[in-house]
Amino acid sequence: MIPVPGYEGRRVAVFGLGRSGITAARALRAGGAIPVLWDDGVSGRLQAQAEGFIVEDLTAADWSGFAALVLSPGAPLTHPKPHWTVDKARAAGVPVVGDIELFARALDALPEGRRPWVIAITGTNGKSTTTALIGWVLQQAGLTVHVGGNIGIGVLALPEPTPGAVYVIEVSSYQLDLTTSFAPDAAILTNISPDHLDRHGGMEGYVAAKRRIFQSRKTAPYVGIDDPCGFAIWQELKAEGRAVDPVSVERPMDDDLGMYLMDDWLTYNAGGRPAPIVDLSKARSLPGRHNAQNAAFAFLAVNDMGIPEETVVKGLLTFPGLAHRMEAVGHIGHVRFINDSKATNADAARQALSSYPKVFWIAGGKPKDGGIDDLTDLFPRVAKAYLIGDAAEAFAATLGDTPHVISKTMDAAVAAAAADAASAGGDQIVLLSPACASFDQYPDFEVRGEAFRAAVLNLGATPETAR
User: Fold this and answer.
1) Strand boundaries in 280-334, DSSP class E
2) 66-71 β-sheet, strand order
3) 389, 436 contact by CB (below 8 A)
4) For the chain, which end, N or C, has fewer CB atoms within 10 Å of the first or last residue's CB respectively?
């Protein structure tokens, strides 16, 4: 745990007692604060009471006595309308912060020699894989590495800083909205496409939240420039005089400093001198152009720390992959089953569909705006689609003449897809890439991915690790 100083002996309101909220309360208490907790759910309040925290109904509290409000990233800061705790905090002149901001303040309070190196990653898609990949490469280099934030362990639950340690932190747009002093040593923006627009008041607010990862001029920026928003941010940062490393997997860098994909090779251009770095066709866990982008970010951020190039390349080639993101879970004969449950929007599903010439595609769940309308150019790659969840009927209409069936449940979809893939003969791919949130049938994408894995193994598949 990372104790949070600066609030010694002062009351700090904490609303939302999920992973980040209860962790923030523990870190505040460890730093000498008096956390006052509340949650709309009874279970969260009971857990807090069991840990000895003050649990107080914040609707009736005296807000003038609070030094800060720590808001769960799940509660809206501005849109569709501010959470009621935000209204109360602002009326009383109480600052509203999140767990990433508390992490930043804890690091700022450290003596110079104890401050760790921090790499932060955000973006609509690819941030979790990039975060895990950087962590893996640094571990292979023999460093003390702590990976967390919006992935895995809440940032304040990570071990206390020690000299030479590196923190690799995934940060969401919700978390970035609640920061003012977060200044990582290196920051990565993978890409931006429409997502969470209701929480940010539209695309402009969403982009502004993502751009906050570069708010400190002390931060070295790395930007994906293949989407219009990323390209614009790259240009803005250059205009500010920032030294930016851009990444593209769509076009070469002719004159600009940066990294791009040439055939299967990650290539670095330094002032018109392109140098091939690594052949990604040898990296089995990094298929597709989107993973080439993730690998490029990992190479740049780690190599710029002074890690030898050959060590970084070895780490990229040995990366085992991220659970629920293009994860090979098993095979039955020549049919491989790929778990891409983390593809919760159409843009993420595009990355998976683009990685294979033909797939038996399991899709559906709680749909997002636009559904799969933007994927029509990839429908020729779909041998057949198996539709589940709330989106099934709408997706069926969009698929039109593309072969499809409404399977409704994961078990039915996996069984039908496996049978059809086996009948097709030769090497085949059954791909779960839902292009949807999971909340109609599952509490999160992890549970959905595990349901896919269980259904595959129940058919008698050999786990991929046993291959």
Assistant:
1) 327-332
2) 54-55, 34-38, 11-15, 66-71, 96-97
3) yes
4) C
**For 43-63, what is each residue's pLDDT tens digit?**
899 999 999 999 999 999 999
Question: 41: exposed, middle or buried (C-beta count within 10 Å: 0-12, 13-18, 19+)?
Answer: exposed
Structure tokens at 167: 């923190």
Helix (H, G, I), strand (E, B) or coil at 10: coil
Tokens encoding 345: 């929007």
Strands of 249-372, DSSP E: 258-262, 265-269, 274-279, 327-332, 335-339, 359-364
- Asked if 343 and 403 count as a contact pair (C-beta separation under 8 A), the reply is no
Nearest to 117 by CA among 349, 347, 302: 302
Q: How far apart (Å, rounded) are the C-alpha atoms in residues 256 and 263? A: 19
In 3D space, the residue among 156, 178, 187 whose CA is nearest the CA of residue 24 turns out to be 156
Residue 466: pLDDT over 70 = no
Give strand ranges (E) for 49-114. Answer: 54-55, 66-71, 96-97
- pLDDT tier, 467 (very low <50, low <70, confident <90, very high otherwise): very low
Region of 257 (left: φ > 0; alpha: ψ -120 to 50; beta: rest) is beta
Provide φ and ψ at 294, rounded to 5°.
-60, -45
Residue 76 DSSP label: -
Mean pLDDT of 390-398: 97
Of 284, 158, 300, 290, which is closest to residue 221 (Cα–Cα)?
300
Token pair for residue 105? 């303040």
Name the nearest CA neighbour of 414 among 358, 361, 353, 348: 361
pLDDT for 206 beyond 90: yes
The rounded distance, in Å, linking the Cα atoms of 121 and 210 is 10
